[in-house]
Amino acid sequence: MLDPAGSTAVAAAPDVLVQRLPDGESVFLNLVTEEYFALDLVGTAMWEELTGSGSTGPAIRGLLDRFDVDEETLARDLSTLVATLSERGLLLVGDDALAEAQAPAPD
């Protein structure tokens, strides 16, 4: 389970294209594996909070402000999503995320 204190760093993988659809859902393309992945409205909100904050703790707090859900359920669901996105190469977690955040921007 994720630590609500925010000890888990996260970042979008560099080889992923994300397109938000008009209905609030998102479609992802992993450019390395050429696999597509989709998130519904709630999953998209989770992605936005994760990648916007760069850490799971702030993401949990932001999502608690947006949705009527208890923290334990939210942390469990977010943990499952982080694991799924990481397995599919869409989200970097921990040291990989920190390294990506510190990498110089391409010219």
Radius of gyration: 13 Å
Using the alpha-carbon principal axes, give the shape.
globular
Relative helix content: 40-55%
Output mean pLDDT: 89
Please specify the SSE layout and strand pairing.
Layout: E1 10-12, E2 16-20, E3 26-30, E4 35-39, H1 41-53, H2 56-66, H3 71-87, E5 91-93, H4 95-102
Antiparallel strand pairs: 1-5, 2-3, 3-4
Helix pairs in contact: 1-2, 2-3
Provide a descriptive summary of the structure in words.
- With 107 residues, the chain is of the alpha+beta class.
- It has a single domain (10-97), classed as Outer Surface Protein A, domain 3, CATH 3.90.930.
- It has four helices and five strands; from the N terminus they run ββββαααβα.
- The protein has helices at residues 41-53, 56-66, 71-87, 95-102, and strands at residues 10-12, 16-20, 26-30, 35-39, 91-93.
- Strands 2-3-4 form a three-stranded antiparallel beta sheet.
- The mean pLDDT is 89.
Short synopsis of the structure:
The chain is of the alpha+beta class and 107 residues long. It is built from four helices and five strands, in the order E-E-E-E-H-H-H-E-H. The model has no long low-confidence stretch (mean pLDDT 89).
Supply database-style keywords.
107 residues; alpha+beta; Outer Surface Protein A, domain 3; 3-stranded antiparallel β-sheet; two-stranded antiparallel sheet; globular
